[in-house]
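Known limitations

Structure tokens in this collection are predictions and should be treated as such. Users comparing against experimental data should check residue numbering before alignment. To illustrate the layout, the record for Aminoglycoside 3'-phosphotransferase is reproduced below. The input appears on top and the generated tokens appear beneath it.
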Amino acid sequence: MSQQDQPLPAGALDARLAGYRFERDALGRSAANVFRLEAGGLPTLYLKVEEAGAFGELADEAARLDWLKASGLPCPEVIARESDGGRNRLLISALPGADLASASTLTPLLRVELLAAALLELHRLPIASCPFDHRLEKRMAVAKARMQAGIIDETDFDETRLGKSAEALFAELESRRPGREDLVVTHGDACLPNFIACEDGFSGYIDCSRLGVADRYQDIALACRSITYNFGEALVQPFLDRYGLTALDPAKLDYFQLLDEFF
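Generated tokens:
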């Protein structure tokens, strides 16, 4: 951890942000509040704020952004962190362009191809170099803890699962667990809004708090769902073609979408 990544004393971040205008970014579904910060003559920044607690993700995100940048892949720079016991704050740089769900200057086909290429680059990183373990044994333990803490939003389940309880879905997770994992370095939340691009091409990965070694379907499943939601099912196949996945595993696809209900 570099000196600039050390948590700041409570309140020290406010002085650093003097003069910036704050605009709430409402696109993401993270538990953290996200603000875009702008000021004349100063670089655009993003500030994330979350309640401190057992399931906070900002420290995880900072660690993963540092690792991803050190691995040579594009992502925001961690500028500062702060925790006062009641809330955590993370200040990061902005990337050029717009997220792949909103980048209207690019065609939907180009956007899904950029998503596939970005995932390929990430998945080619050596898993031995990644210190973050998100294999099923670890992720299911976290999913169970989140369920037992009562923080699973059952009203936000996918349409096919609405009306079921978190306990019923967790029983499905246990009974349908794949026998083998095809491990790669995954983003963990590979939805279109978490990848940034401009007209010159891919700019970088954002919202990386769940990055870690996991089955590649952790990313493939959420990417396919996001593409269907944003552009329609017709663009799923071009995404798979660009990624190079010749035979889709429907059972794994559904399983990792089911797992995502807990996060």
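For this record: The domain at 3-93 is CATH 3.30.200.20 (Phosphorylase Kinase; domain 1). Residues 108-123 form the longest helix (16 residues). Please report discrepancies through the issue tracker.
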